[in-house]
Design brief:
- The chain is built from three helices and 22 strands.
- The chain has about 325 residues and is mostly beta strands.
- It folds into three domains: about 120 residues, Mac-2 Binding Protein (Roll), CATH 3.10.250; about 100 residues, Mac-2 Binding Protein (Roll); about 90 residues, SRCR-like domain (Mac-2 Binding Protein, Roll).
- A hairpin with a 2-residue loop joins strand 11 and strand 12.
- The longest helix has 10 residues.
- It is globular.
- Keywords: Disulfide bond, Glycoprotein, Repeat, Signal.
- InterPro entries: SRCR, SRCR-like_dom_sf.
- This is SRCR domain-containing protein.
- Pfam families: SRCR.
């Protein structure tokens, strides 16, 4: 069944299991929500695709902003959302990031390209946390040019892991219901989210229709651990989020069981080593934690015993980890 609704210059078309969001002459096709899909542009009376040559996150951010989706985003190459058909209108697109439309970006002449549809580019635009900090707050997800709040019912730790990972906020510490960061003033999201926990974007998680939910039960997520300065997301200086600011962990009593908890929390396998003495470079700002005493079985770093929040310490003693999932 086809559903068509017009709102200003935005056109939504929902058919079978695919979502299409179109704003003027740009649309996303083939994703599982309206802020994810293959990029298509309308030119000379015909929709066509965009080649992934030179495409980067700056280009993606322009498309997401143009469509009214959040600019925190990912690029999907090699026809991730399926190959298009017909024209390939754009190639070698290079946006500065300030453009209001992909049409304003530098590119080859419309229709000139050296690509096939196996190189059609796609984008995924992400959700956001509201009411706390960038890494904590009420979860809202985009649909078209509108943000929707998410119900706490059936929202679990696996869903939160994907949210925190996507926002570059480490691992989730808490999933909170009862509108912990205030009630949203947007519409409620009508889908139950069922992430496996290993998705790298929230928009890739499967969904099913949900029961009625009110803003009394808006879900919130608090994320708190990340690794910085390594050559992968599973190696680096340990940083924790506290009072809205990232800070480091002092290496006093830092050992492999402590590192084991960090690796587990971040979904990075087992701890290989627990480097000390700012092995991954010195951090800045606060040294939040010292004297950690983890057994190795704790679910999050903040479940371990430590000497309270905030100490006077030198960043030359910042702790790090190297996990097996490099």
């Amino acid at each position: 069944m086809t559903f068509l609704c017009c709102l200003s210059s935005l056109r939504y078309i929902l058919y079978t299991s695919f979502c299409i969001l179109s704003a003027g002459n740009v649309r996303l096709v083939g994703g599982n929500n309206s802020c994810a899909g293959r990029v298509e542009v309308y030119y000379n009376g015909e929709w066509g695709t965009v080649c992934d040559d030179y495409w980067d996150l700056t280009n993606t951010a322009v498309v997401c902003r143009e469509l009214g989706c959040d600019e925190t985003s990912n690029t999907m190459r090699a026809a991730h959302f399926g190959p298009g058909s017909g024209k390939i209108w754009m190639d070698n697109v290079r946006c500065s990031g300030s453009e209001s439309s992909i049409f304003d970006c530098s590119k080859t002449k419309m229709g000139d390209h050296n690509c096939g549809h196996s190189e059609d580019v796609g984008v995924i635009c992400s959700g956001r946390l509201v009411g706390g900090s960038r890494c904590s707050g009420r979860l809202e997800v985009p649909h078209g040019n509108t943000w929707y709040t998410v119900c706490a019912a059936a929202f679990d730790q696996q869903d939160a892991e994907v949210v925190c990972r996507e926002l570059d906020c480490g691992a989730p510490v808490q999933v909170l219901g009862a509108a912990a960061f205030g009630k949203g003033d947007t519409q409620m999201w009508t889908q139950e989210i069922q992430c496996g926990g290993d998705e790298y974007q929230f928009a890739l998680c499967p969904t099913t229709p949900s029961q009625f939910c009110s803003h009394e039960n808006d879900v919130s997520v608090v994320c708190a651990v990340r690794l910085v300065g390594g050559n992968s997301r599973c190696a680096g200086r340990v940083e924790v989020l506290h009072e809205g600011q990232w800070g480091t962990v002092q290496d006093v009593d830092w050992d492999l069981p402590d590192a084991e908890v960090v690796c587990r929390e971040l979904g990075c396998g087992e701890a290989l080593t627990a480097p000390k003495s700012a092995y991954f470079g010195e951090g800045s700002g606060s040294v939040w934690i010292s004297g950690l005493q983890c057994t190795g079985s704790e679910f999050t770093l903040t479940n371990c015993r430590f000497n309270g929040w905030g100490i006077e310490a030198n960043h030359a003693e910042d702790a790090g980890v190297i996990c097996s999932a490099l």
